[in-house]
């Protein structure tokens, strides 16, 4: 598949740096800024949306014409946005692309955002959304979790919470540039990739945690899933950018999961940054990444004992 030229990559990075240099004056301005930036990107045509309320939250079933209405397999998607931004609207196109690639419906929902709602509000809402799916009659083996950035963190933390509570786990999970450490921030790529990453830094990760917890320093182990006992988790697929500061902790997550006997793998995308899949409309790497995610979802959603592919 065609890849972006270095000139195109550097142009997009420069745009992202300029966007990041404009500091919003309020939470609402930050939310509007993100929504406007994502709305400016090319979107899939023929996206099919069915609004619902999931566990009291605004939510959407997103699909495309190639997705069968009778398909039992689904993706439960947990959006990113530094715990502060993100809606069904901002992530509808990404959800549609995942639906198109996987042939499965994708449920996107609006968990409570910070700073109005502090830790563990978003974590609780993600668990509630999963339980809502089960109450709707979707079987655990017919569900795959997904999420990008803090949404990847939330997907991983939800898996750990469900496992520790003895509840049934989904079939698998894909994590796109997941945050896995809101306590130590000691990954070496916070140093080695700081100049190449147009979006992230150790300071932005700390600010993200402070926004969600309301504290300068956090100690709750749920905020440090990379340090948790990972045994018993379902298969994990991690996609990360080669230029992002979170790369090291993504690699550490996969290494520790494999050591715990989990079927885990990581794909590193050269010259990419955190959650580049959101820019699939202009980045062919995003398209290719989403195609791989679709294959992963198809492989792990086994209906009636047979692969749904």
Automatic annotation (TrEMBL):
MF terms in GO: hydrolase activity
UniProt KW keywords: Hydrolase
Domain (Alpha/beta hydrolase fold-3) ranges: 75-277
InterPro entries xref list: AB_hydrolase_3, AB_hydrolase_fold, GDXG_lipolytic_enzyme, Lipase_GDXG_HIS_AS
Pfam families referenced in this protein's UniProt entry, alphabetically: Abhydrolase_3
Database matches in PANTHER family: AB HYDROLASE SUPERFAMILY PROTEIN C4A8.06C, ACETYL-HYDROLASE LIPR-RELATED
Membership in a protein family: Belongs to the 'GDXG' lipolytic enzyme family.
UniProt protein name: Alpha/beta hydrolase
Organism: Paenibacillus terricola
């Amino acid at each position: 598949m065609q890849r972006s030229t270095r000139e195109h990559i550097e142009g997009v990075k420069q745009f992202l740096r300029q966007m990041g240099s404009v500091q919003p004056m309020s939470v609402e301005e930050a939310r509007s800024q993100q929504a406007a930036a994502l709305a400016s990107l090319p979107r899939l045509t023929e996206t099919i949306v069915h609004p619902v309320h999931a566990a009291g939250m605004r939510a959407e079933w997103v699909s495309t014409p190639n997705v069968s209405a009778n398909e039992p397999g689904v993706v439960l998607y947990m959006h990113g946005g530094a715990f502060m931004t993100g809606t069904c609207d901002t992530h509808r196109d990404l959800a549609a692309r995942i639906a198109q690639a996987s042939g499965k419906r994708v449920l996107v929902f609006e968990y409570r955002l910070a700073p109005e709602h502090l830790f563990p509000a978003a974590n609780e809402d993600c668990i509630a959304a999963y339980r809502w799916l089960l109450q709707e009659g979707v079987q655990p083996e017919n569900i795959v979790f997904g999420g990008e950035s803090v949404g990847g963190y939330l997907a991983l933390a939800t898996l750990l919470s469900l496992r520790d509570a003895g509840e049934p786990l989904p079939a698998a999970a894909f994590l796109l540039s997941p945050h896995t450490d809101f306590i130590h921030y000691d990954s070496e790529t916070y140093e080695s990739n700081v100049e190449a990453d147009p979006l992230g830094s150790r300071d932005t990760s700390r600010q993200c945690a402070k926004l969600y917890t309301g504290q300068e320093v956090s100690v709750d182990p749920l905020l440090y899933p990379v340090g948790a006992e990972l045994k018993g988790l379902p298969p994990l697929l991690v996609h990360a950018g080669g230029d992002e500061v979170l790369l090291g902790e993504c690699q550490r997550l996969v290494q520790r999961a494999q050591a715990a006997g989990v079927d885990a793998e990581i794909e590193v995308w050269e010259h990419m940054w955190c959650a580049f899949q959101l820019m699939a409309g202009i980045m062919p790497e995003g398209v290719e990444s989403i195609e791989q995610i679709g294959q992963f979802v198809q492989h792990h959603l086994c209906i009636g004992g047979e692969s749904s592919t």
